[in-house]
Amino acid sequence: MKKLHSLILEQKEDARHGEAFFPIQKYITTLSQQYPVLTTHWHEEAEFTLILKGQGSYQIDLAEYLVEPEDLIFVPPLMLHSASIQTAEPLLSETYVFHMNFLGGNSTDICSTRYLLPLTHHEIILPWVLKPQHPAYFSLRKLFAQISSLYNGDIPGYELALKSLFLQAVFLLLQYQETAPVPDNSASLYSEKLKTVLDYMEAHYMDALTVADLAGLCYFSEYHFMRFFKKHMNMTCMEYLNNLRLEKAVELLEDDNASILEVSLSVGFHNLSYFHRAFKKKYHMTPGEFLKMKK
Fold first, then answer.
1. Which of 30, 86, 141, 189 is 20 to 30 A from 284, alpha carbon to alpha carbon?
2. Per-residue pLDDT averaged across 111-136, rounded?
3. pTM score, two decimals?
């Protein structure tokens, strides 16, 4: 039986999806007024998602798409993407994150060299959001249902079946591929700058980061950088940094030997009172209450 995860706390590019020999992970994600945004992130794996409930917005490679129940979403590897709610109703989705190597992306056969590697390197552009009226939708929706039913691993050889189903999904999407457009230098530059900033924050979240530090990575003025970050992340850089620190704090609090003060200091909160307030605002409980609940 595979463990079910939520993407809320596992949205960073260094999150491990699945196991080394079976790099597939199922996620059930709920965005609500409590957690309205799945912040912009990327990873080496591709994603195949079904919207189950609610209306929302997906941003893929800095382009925005409105989604609703029964929409299918395919996000290729290494692509910036995020999601947010559009109404008061929660946005519920089921996602399978899988590595192209599981499909043979690291082999030297024709399937890898002609299709999987160009897809990974964004030399082939597939449809990202598929509505029910799309010609491939019915077949892909059927494949998604089969993936969902097989994922729990109750049937011998289910790994073979899952591999086959993901390959079929890529095959169907390839029928509607587009030639990679001539690069938009400005869009590509902004995407790379955003990745640079997010990488830096991931590596230095425990440090005393300032807007000036982050703006300097992009060679932007502080004013330009703050507008740039807010536009693409739907929050300020300091809000994102605090959110990242709180998520790291939860991971540390899972360790039975960690004290609240040690956790606060190690993730970059040097004011314990502020850490308590921020933690409670995000998780609706204090760090102490979280520890009691965990026990």
1. 86
2. 92
3. 0.71
User: Which domains does the chain carry?
Assistant: 24-179 (2.60.120.280), 185-294 (1.10.10.60)
**Average pLDDT, rounded, for the chain:** 86
Dig out the tokens for 32 from the structure.
Answer: 């609500």
Copy the structure tokens of residue 187.
């869009």
Question: According to the model, what pLDDT value does residue 133 have?
Answer: 96
Mean pLDDT of 116-137: 92
In this structure, the strands spanning 37-41 and 81-85 are antiparallel
Q: Scan for tokens 């590596």, then name that residue.
A: 203
pLDDT at 30 over 80: yes
The pLDDT score that the predictor gives to residue 183 is 54
Does residue 7 carry a pLDDT above 70?
A: no
CA distances from 141 to 34, 70, 91, 147, 190 (A): 30, 8, 19, 10, 34
Nearest-angstrom CA–CA distance, 73 and 229: 24
Residue type, 189: L
Residue with tokens 């079929």: 168
How many C-beta neighbours within 10 Å does residue 74 have? Answer: 19
**Cα gap 160→165, rounded to integer Å:** 9
CB neighbours of residue 47 within 10 Å: 22
- Report, as an integer, the average pLDDT of 255-263: 82
- pLDDT value at 156 more than 80: yes
